[in-house]
Specification:
Shape: globular
Radius of gyration: 15 Å
Strand order of the largest sheet: 2-1-5
Strand content: 5-15%
Helix content: 40-55%
Length: 170
């Protein structure tokens, strides 16, 4: 069994792959790409890719830890990389990339499939009817607010509803 990864390490990997493909990635797009990477990994391997959790925010699933790391980019393409901070010294350090080559291949596949889509299209896909974000929001009486968690169980059970939406032509 593979250990879950720091979501910031996977986000950095997504940004690296975007840069290699010459695709700008905004925070909004990064959140959806990370969510799709996590969900596909969960569906295919029956285990989570990243630690922590996703929340249902207005524009789709958001990983709060990753949001905090990149919110300074606003709606502009992200140029920086997430770093770790030593709580005792305050020193920042690079977050190591996953060493497992299958993780990089997984991210490359996600980027090949979703990476060229606009942030708006990624939001549309993340909002697909009966998919995890929609399910959580509908069960909360339609009140989208920070802190509405999308559990891995809900993602595993409901991610299949994204496939219909992905097949649509933008």
């Amino acid at each position: 069994m593979i250990a879950m990864y720091d979501p910031r390490a996977i986000a950095n990997l997504i940004l690296e792959e975007g840069q290699l493909a010459e695709r700008a990635v905004t925070n909004l797009a990064l959140q959806k790409l990370l969510y799709f990477a996590h969900a596909l990994f969960l569906v295919e391997r029956k285990q989570p890719l990243v630690s922590g959790y996703f929340e249902a925010w207005q524009f789709g699933p958001v990983h709060p830890t990753v949001y905090q790391s990149f919110k300074s980019a606003g709606d502009q393409p992200i140029k920086l990389r997430a770093t770790a901070m030593n709580a005792l010294t305050g020193a920042r350090s690079e977050i190591p990339a996953p060493s497992d080559p299958s993780i990089r291949r997984h991210i490359q596949r996600v980027m090949m499939f979703y990476g060229a889509l606009t942030p708006g299209r990624l939001v549309d896909i993340s909002h697909a009817k009966d998919a995890p974000w929609h399910f959580v929001v509908e069960n909360s009486k339609g009140k989208v607010s920070l802190g509405l968690r999308i559990s891995d169980h809900v993602i595993l059970e409901r991610f299949k509803y994204h496939k219909v939406s992905v097949a649509e032509v933008p």
